[in-house]
């Protein structure tokens, strides 16, 4: 969770690279992330879901799913496409999924129930969900209650800070103080299972 340009996507791609089956979901009509993924990072661009089974076609173990969107009216189609993709993940499992702007998926596409279901039951499905947002107060509470790892950049928005009070094992006063006082390029790492907190930098 952090502002534009903070390093959320850079960090997420570094983490997801450690997993076997990687799925990045892109939602913007024009997204510079696409060229980065399909270039040196070697992701296969998929406009329809599902892609070939990664067990059968190894090059499809690293996939960028980007449903077509060329007009405002296509948002409805995008909702259906991403909704169907999330439902299929619930059945098949196995993927590590990165939602580059989870607020757009949960709030504007109104797919919060599907995302919450994956967050709540993902571990039993061998499924991992990673998500980024600029607005912590606009994403489902299950993003916090089910998360194992949180990365928080500096934020002085009072509503956002209040939302951070639900971080399980972590002391809310300590978390809030740390987030409000982070220096530029610093990030607070929270392990919600142990309550451990670290301040570090994303290189």
Please describe what this structure looks like.
The chain is globular, with a radius of gyration of 17 Å. With 203 residues, it is α/β, with parallel strands linked by helices. It is built from eight helices and eight strands. The longest helix has 19 residues, at 74-92. The protein folds into two domains: 1-147, Rossmann fold (3-Layer(aba) Sandwich); 148-203, no CATH class. The mean pLDDT is 88. The strands form two sheets. Strands 2-3-1-4-5 form a five-stranded parallel β-sheet, covered by helices on one side.
Task: Write a concise keyword list for the protein shown above.
35% helix; three-stranded antiparallel sheet; 2 domains; Rossmann fold; 203 residues; five-stranded parallel sheet; alpha/beta; single chain; 8 helices; 8 strands
Topology:
Layout: H1 8-16, E1 22-25, H2 32-38, E2 44-46, E3 62-65, H3 74-92, E4 96-99, H4 102-108, H5 112-121, E5 128-131, H6 142-145, E6 149-152, H7 158-163, H8 172-180, E7 186-191, E8 197-201
Parallel strand pairs: 1-3, 1-4, 2-3, 4-5
Antiparallel strand pairs: 6-7, 7-8
């Amino acid at each position: 969770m952090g502002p534009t340009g903070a390093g959320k996507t850079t960090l997420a791609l570094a983490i997801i690279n450690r997993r076997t089956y990687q799925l990045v979901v892109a939602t913007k009509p024009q997204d510079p992330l696409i060229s980065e993924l399909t270039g040196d990072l070697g992701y296969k661009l998929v406009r329809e879901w599902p892609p070939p089974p990664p067990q059968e076609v190894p090059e499809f173990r690293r996939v960028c799913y980007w449903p077509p969107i060329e007009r405002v009216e296509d948002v409805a189609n995008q909702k259906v496409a991403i909704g169907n993709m999330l439902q299929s993940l619930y059945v098949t499992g196995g993927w590590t999924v990165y939602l580059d702007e989870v607020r757009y998926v949960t709030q504007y596409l109104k797919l919060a129930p599907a995302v919450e279901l994956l967050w709540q039951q993902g571990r039993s499905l061998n499924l991992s969900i990673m998500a980024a947002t600029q607005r912590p107060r606009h994403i489902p509470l299950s993003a916090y209650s089910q998360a194992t790892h949180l990365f928080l950049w500096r934020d002085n928005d009072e509503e956002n800070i209040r939302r951070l009070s639900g971080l399980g094992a972590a002391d809310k006063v300590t978390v809030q103080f740390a987030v409000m006082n982070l220096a530029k390029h610093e990030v607070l790492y929270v392990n919600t299972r142990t309550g451990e907190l670290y301040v570090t930098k994303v290189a």
